[in-house]
Amino acid sequence: MRTKRYSLKTEKAYIYWVKYFIHFHKFGHPLDMGSIEISSFLSYLANSQKVSASTQTQALCALVFMYKQFLKKEIGELEFGYSKKPKSLPRVMSPNEVGSVMEHLSGVHLLIAGILYGAGLRISEALKLRIKDIDFEEKTIFVFRGKGQKDRITILPTSLIEPLKAHIAKVKKTHEKDLADGFGDTSLPASLHKKYGGALKDPKWQYVFTSSTRCVHPYDGYICRHHMHATSFSKQLRKAVLASKVDKKISAHTFRHSFATEMLRAGSDIRTLQELMGHSDIRTTEMYTHVIGERFASDTSPLDKLKIDIKK
Questions:
Q1: Of these residues, 25, 145, 147, 167, which one is catalytic?
Q2: Does the annotation mark 279 as catalytic?
Q3: What stretch of H or E contains 135?
Q4: Rounded to an integer, what distance in angstroms lies between the CA atom of residue 19 and that of residue 111?
Q5: For the chain, which has fewer Cβ within 10 Å, the N-terminal or C-terminal residue?
Q6: Is 183 inside a domain boundary?
Q7: Which neighbouring-strand residues pair with 9?
Q8: Angle between helical axes of 252-265 and 270-277 (0-180°, round to 10)
Q9: b/e map of 100-116 (b: 16 or more CB within 10 Å)?
Q10: Is 288 a catalytic residue?
Q11: Which residues in the chain show pLDDT less than 70?
Q12: 133 and 269 share a domain?
C-alpha cells in the first residue's frame, strides 16, 4: 500500500478489515479461503451488523486488495447481500445558521470553519493546506491532491485574508522556535523527506493549521510537526452547535454542502461550481440543485400573500 502511495487513513482501514475478516473465520488463513468466505463475511456485515453501503464497499476493497495485490490469488465471483444505500440529499445550513454556529467558535477553529464554508473545502483538505497554498494577492486557495488525487484552485474569501495572515504569522513564530530547538521539519508523504530534505524546514512548506506538538513521522521516523487532527475541530464544532441551538445534525462537511447551495443560489454556474468543489462527475454537483429546490418549496408563494378568496 505504501509503494502505491495509499494514505495512512486507508492503510489503517484496510488492515482493520483484513483482521476482522480473519477473526470472523476463526483465524483461518486467507490463502485457505476464497469467494465463499468473502461473500459470507460481506453478507454478515450487511445483514447482522447493518453497516452502511460505503462501509461494506470499503471492506470489499480491502479484501480484494489483499488477494489480488498481495496474495496474487484470484477470488472468483462473489455473491453477497448488499447494504442498502439510502437516497438522501445533503444536509445544509442557512446563512443565519452558519453564522450562529460560527459565533460560538474562536481562534483557529473559527478560521477552519471559515475556510470550509467560504471556500467549500473538505475538512481533510483544509487541514492539509500549507502556507504556500494560500495566494493572498490572487485570493485563491490551491488544494493539492484532494479527493481522487486531484489538484484544484478555489476562492479565498476576502474576509479571511487578514485573520489568515495574522494566524500564519503565529505559525511562523512557532516554526522559528522549532528551528531554534533543533527541529523545524514539517511532515511529508512517505519517503519524500530524502528527496525534498531542504524543503522540510522552509516556512512556506509548514502547515497552516499545525499541531500543537511535534511527533514522530509514522513512516520515516523523523521528528516533525504535522497538521492538526480532525477530531480537534469536531469536538469544538459539537460544542458550538449545542451552544447555537441550531437543531440540525451538523458536521464539518455540512459547511461544504452549505457553500455549494449558497453559490448556486447566488447564480454561480454549475460547471464553475463543479471545479470549485473538485467533483469528477457533474451529477454529483447537480444534486445541490435539488437541495435548492427543496428549500424553495418551503418559501411562501406570492399568491399566498394576496388577500383573495380562491373559493369564491
A1: 147
A2: yes
A3: strand 134-135
A4: 39
A5: C
A6: yes
A7: none
A8: 160
A9: bbbebbeebbebbbbbb
A10: yes
A11: 85-88, 190-193, 197, 292-312
A12: yes
Q: How many residues does the chain have?
A: 312
Q: What is the per-residue pLDDT across 181-233, written as a single tens digit (0 to 9) for each?
A: 999 888 887 666 677 767 788 999 999 999 999 999 888 888 999 999 999 99
Q: Are residues 41 and 131 in the same domain?
A: no
Kindly report the CATH number assigned to the domain that includes residue 17: 1.10.150.130
Q: Which of 130, 152, 175, 279 is catalytic?
A: 279
The residue annotated as part of the active site, out of 104, 109, 122, 130, is: 122
Q: What is the DSSP letter of 130?
A: B
Amino acid identity at 67: Y
Same domain, 52 and 118: no
Q: Of the listed 170, 253, 290, 295, which one is catalytic?
A: 253
Which backbone phi and psi does 186 adopt, to 5 degrees? Answer: -90, 165
Instruction: State the cell numbers at 284.
Output: 454529483
DSSP β-ladder status, 223-224 and 215-216: antiparallel
- Give the pLDDT confidence score for residue 307 in this predicted structure: 56
Is residue 147 among the annotated active site residues?
A: yes
108 and 191 belong to one structural domain:
yes
167 phi and psi, to 5 degrees?
Answer: -65, -45
122 is catalytic: yes
Q: Kindly name the residue from 104, 128, 256, 257 that is annotated as catalytic.
A: 256
| Domain extent at residue 32 | 8-70
Phi and psi, residue 128, nearest 5°:
-90, 0
pLDDT at position 217, please?
A: 87
- At 22, list the grid cell: 480473519
Residue 155, H or E segment: strand 152-155
Residue 195 lies in a domain: yes
- Name the residue with cell 486531484: 150
